[in-house]
């Protein structure tokens, strides 16, 4: 079978070369966008008088038929036609005859493939914003149900200060909020049209790029033809944002895994999101968060992979750039999988309020607050810190917690103590004392929930 570009060649392509250079096995993912772009292109060729209108109609109808056949899975793509662009063009020519060969007028695969990728990624970004909103909504629901759940907050994975579980959930709502902002901001750089750049220098035909842009609902047209066919920043940006989202997901995954352990037993993931062991009958493993944590690696890998492909690459198109696709598809699939599972997993997670509370009762995470109490009595914070450090050490030696000490015992460490400390030390009071914007006090966290709900309602 002859190649679309066969004219200059006297020999058949080596079979292994064909297999090595072909991208059809993965870029068939772009079929719909390829046809969408071709329809806009051929309509423009008609409007500009570059092609007669009846040729345009034949080509358009043919492209619609090709699309239907693709949807019906009725086309066998072939490696000898290399990629999705030439497979579709070949199928079109088989369908409509030689007039199909006019479609590629004033266009190159270089601006065509870039256009396809912009169209494809544009859709995905919209879907990801939606998935992230759903995850935020699930986290907000858990926060609302746990405005009275107190657990130890950690630094260095050591008990630090008690916090509301709701506050912890809302921390992730904020992170995913920034992820959404980043994706939305990148949209303006994805929503740009490369088509019309030709192979690299523009085209001799009197095309109308702005018309094509408006047909495809792109906000902007790439200004420079060399840049248009060479740019993959928009993919890099997406891969970076996807990496940051996975990093956030891997952190909450790690916490869910820890919290599900017998040692913590703070939460229980629903059976539907866990698996068992083939040998140990008692096991219920948190496979979903574990895999999300693990798959973060491949998402980072795809980012580093494409950064490395593009590094030092001279302008304009180079075949290296065909390597932009598999990583992007893989990242999209990986992120979709993680986000689709995460929202229902969070929504169905059981929160063990009593166990968290028990943990708070058996620690020194209220120590900062009696230091602050002494400061309130006029003691410089540094000295108060020292006094409480000694008090905690005494407790540890005695096998007691701060609330177990008598006032006399307290007074051995400072005369400034009085019986109000017992109230200061109560976990509820410790939490509610942090009544600053962004703090863990119930009033602040309810406000944060209210703000998040208002944002989610707008979507
Ligand atoms: N399959 C190619 C890619 O994905 C399409 C562009 C090919 N252009 C070329 N001049 N060989 O990058």
Automatic annotation (TrEMBL):
| UniProt domain Argininosuccinate lyase C-terminal: residue ranges | 364-432
Q: Which PROSITE patterns match?
A: FUMARATE_LYASES
Q: What UniProt keywords are attached to this protein's entry?
A: Amino-acid biosynthesis, Arginine biosynthesis, Cytoplasm, Lyase
- EC number(s) recorded for this UniProt protein: 4.3.2.1
Catalytically driven reaction(s)? 2-(N(omega)-L-arginino)succinate = fumarate + L-arginine
Superkingdom assignment: Bacteria
Question: Where would you say this protein principally sits, based on its record?
Answer: cytoplasm
The pathway this protein participates in, as annotated, is: Amino-acid biosynthesis; L-arginine biosynthesis; L-arginine from L-ornithine and carbamoyl phosphate: step 3/3
| Family according to the record | Belongs to the lyase 1 family. Argininosuccinate lyase subfamily.
**Protein name, per record:** Argininosuccinate lyase
The UniProt gene name for this protein comes to argH
């Amino acid at each position: 079978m002859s190649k679309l570009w066969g004219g200059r060649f006297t020999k058949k392509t080596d079979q292994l070369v064909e297999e090595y250079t072909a991208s059809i096995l993965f870029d068939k993912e772009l079929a719909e966008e390829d046809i969408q772009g071709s329809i806009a292109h051929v309509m423009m060729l008609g409007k500009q008088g570059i092609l007669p209108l009846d040729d345009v109609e034949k080509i358009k109808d043919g492209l619609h038929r090709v699309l239907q056949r693709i949807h019906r899975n009725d086309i066998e793509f072939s490696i000898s036609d290399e990629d999705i662009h030439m497979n579709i063009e070949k199928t079109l020519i088989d369908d409509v005859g030689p007039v199909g060969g006019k479609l590629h007028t004033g266009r190159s695969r270089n601006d065509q493939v870039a256009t396809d990728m912009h169209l494809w990624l544009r859709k995905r970004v919209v879907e990801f914003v939606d998935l992230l909103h759903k995850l935020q909504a699930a986290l907000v629901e858990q926060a609302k149900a746990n405005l009275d759940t107190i657990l130890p907050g950690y630094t260095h994975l050591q008990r630090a200060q008690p916090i509301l579980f709701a506050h912890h959930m809302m921390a992730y709502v904020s992170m995913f909020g920034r992820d959404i902002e980043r994706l939305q901001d990148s949209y303006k750089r994805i929503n740009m049209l490369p088509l019309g750049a030709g192979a690299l220098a523009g085209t001799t035909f009197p095309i109308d790029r702005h018309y094509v842009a408006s047909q495809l609902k792109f906000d902007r047209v790439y200004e420079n033809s060399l840049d248009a066919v060479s740019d993959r920043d928009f993919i890099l940006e997406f891969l970076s944002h996807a990496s940051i989202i996975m990093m956030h997901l891997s952190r909450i995954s790690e916490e869910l895994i820890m919290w599900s352990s017998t040692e913590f037993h703070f939460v229980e993931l629903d059976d539907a999101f866990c698996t068992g062991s083939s040998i140990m009958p008692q096991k219920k493993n948190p496979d979903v968060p574990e895999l999300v944590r693990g798959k973060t690696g491949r998402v980072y890998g795809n980012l580093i992979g494409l950064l490395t492909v593009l590094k030092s690459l001279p302008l304009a198109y180079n075949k290296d750039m065909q390597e932009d696709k598999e990583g992007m598809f893989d990242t999209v699939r990986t992120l979709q999988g993680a986000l689709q599972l995460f929202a229902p997993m969070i929504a169905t997670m059981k929160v063990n309020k009593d166990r968290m509370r028990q943990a708070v009762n058996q620690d020194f995470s209220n120590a900062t607050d009696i230091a602050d109490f002494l400061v309130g009595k006029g003691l410089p914070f540094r000295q108060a810190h020292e006094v409480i450090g000694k008090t905690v050490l005494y407790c540890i030696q005695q096998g007691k917690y701060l609330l177990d000490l008598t006032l006399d015992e307290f007074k051995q460490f400072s005369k400034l103590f009085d019986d109000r400390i017992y109230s200061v030390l109560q976990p509820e009071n410790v939490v509610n004392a942090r009544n600053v914007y962004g703090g863990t006090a119930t009033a602040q966290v309810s406000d944060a929930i209210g703000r998040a709900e208002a944002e989610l309602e707008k979507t």
